[in-house]
Design brief:
- It comes from Panicum virgatum.
- It is a multi-pass membrane protein.
- The protein is α/β, with parallel strands linked by helices and 526 residues long.
- The chain has helices spanning 2-32, 73-94, 117-130, 150-153, 156-161, 164-173, 192-195, 202-212, 269-279, 353-373, 385-411, 464-471, 487-523; strands at 50-55, 101-104, 144-146, 178-182, 185-189, 223-227, 252-254, 261-264, 283-286, 293-297, 304-308, 322-328, 343-349, 414-418, 424-428, 444-445, 448-449, 473-475, 481-483.
- The chain has a six-stranded mixed sheet with strand order 4-5-6-9-11-10, with no helix packed on it. Strands 3-2-1-12-13 form a five-stranded mixed sheet, with no helix packed on it. It has a two-stranded antiparallel ribbon with strand order 7-8.
- Strand 2 (101-104), helix 3 (117-130) and strand 3 form a beta-alpha-beta unit.
- The two termini are 45 Å apart.
Length: 526
Amino acid sequence: MQSATRLTLLLCAAWAATVLYGEMGAYWASYLACSWPSPSLSSSPPSNHVKIAVVADPQLMDSTSLGLPSSSIALQAAAFYTDLNMRRSFQSAILPFEPDMVLFLGDHFDGGPYMSDEEWHESLFRFKHIFSMNEQRRKPHIPIYYLSGNHDIGYSAFFSAHPEVLSRYEKEFGSRNYQFSAGKVDFVVIDAQTLDGAKKSKERSSSWEFIKTLSPGNTSNPKVLLTHIPLYRPDNTHCGPHRSSPSINQRVSYAAFDQGITYQNYLTKETSELLLSLLKPVLVLSGHDHDQCTVIHSTPFGPVTEHTLGTISWQQGNLYPSFMLLSAGPKLSQNSTDLKHEVITNLCFLPKQTHIYIWYICQFAVTILLLVFWPTNGLSSVPYMNTFVSFMRSVGAELFSRTKEKDDEEDGEYEMVFDAEGSMHLVKKAVAKAPSACSDSRTVGRGSIVARATAGKHQLEPDSSILVEMGSEVTSEDGAKLARPSKSKVRKVLQRLFRVIQSIVVIAALNVPLYMMLLFKDWIDH
């Protein structure tokens, strides 16, 4: 029973460490593993840069996510833990960097265009709670900028037929085409869902007119293009070392009768080239793909880097959710053409939540197996364990005895003896050893043996399993042995089951309150 108690306490400690790391420590580790970007690895981040945290594709789960009714317990559980994970990521791994601005690259919701007003506002409330700034005490009123995504307003073929989704989005998140400045860098936000829409579409014309007003001649500030849908890239383009899934090739679906786009994963080649030629950005940031991708676009005015940022949500097909830290610098001198230090970025990864949950499941299975199969008397009752321990003890005793003999030889007294030829020899003196006080128990004399009177106490007791087997056999009339169920076996099984349940209750009693405390700590606004 003492062995089972030690095992229960050990499992309690293991689960406490696991819960603390999985629910809190993993997010601290993500924070400590990243930093604001600097022009070189050896230098610190410039103090005069504006610091921006970039988040992409939260896609809050709703009734359109898993094909389940909104009242489904499975959907509600998945939505809650996804929201909790994103809130922890934002509050524990992003806001501690104390950014000056926060930028969302679109797809705030999953079924935004298709939700009713009631469900849409409920999702909006969840979004504001997850990405709340109430925990940001030093900078509680930092500006937040939003891009519209296809999961927020749909593609051009949809919102052309349902313009109310555009007005609903703009009422809460503002204009879909606008520009803002950070330091001396201009950030251009465009509604990418409209750019390849129907040629006579009002939304498409409005977006292109806005873009043309931002010609490079109007300002000398470098530009960063922000688009939810990435720019065109050739099929099978390499996305860099941070991508975890295969590259996705170009796919565009058009509605009949030139009613716009019904799906696209990249902007068309013509649209992408026109955007780059009109704006001449030094950097492009995009989302939509849910996985990291870095590509270089060749243009007449030089190469342009595009970073497609992976989703922040662990439920959107990316096992490695991420965010980006971006530093926008001050204005360069008029004669300077070095823009590589003007906007610098660093990709940061969040905890691998799927792996954490798999870890929980594996540890639970190991816990059950240990509790079920752990010997009652500990490892000493395992077959061959006593033999192994005895062997190790004998090896140790042999090594110790050899060392002792060597020491005796070194410490012994020697005398000089001369032979008939006059040669000298060293001979060790004989030392009489006093009899040991405990020699009465193991001394072997010539013709006699001395044994302890209490040796009977150390006789081997029959194992209980042997007694059970003997008691489980009966003799028939013809002398044959017949086996019958043993009540002792049933009793042992019930005792083991009770011990397992008791240990699980103890482990849960200590760790469930810890888990709930961490859960409510992160979910409730302080």
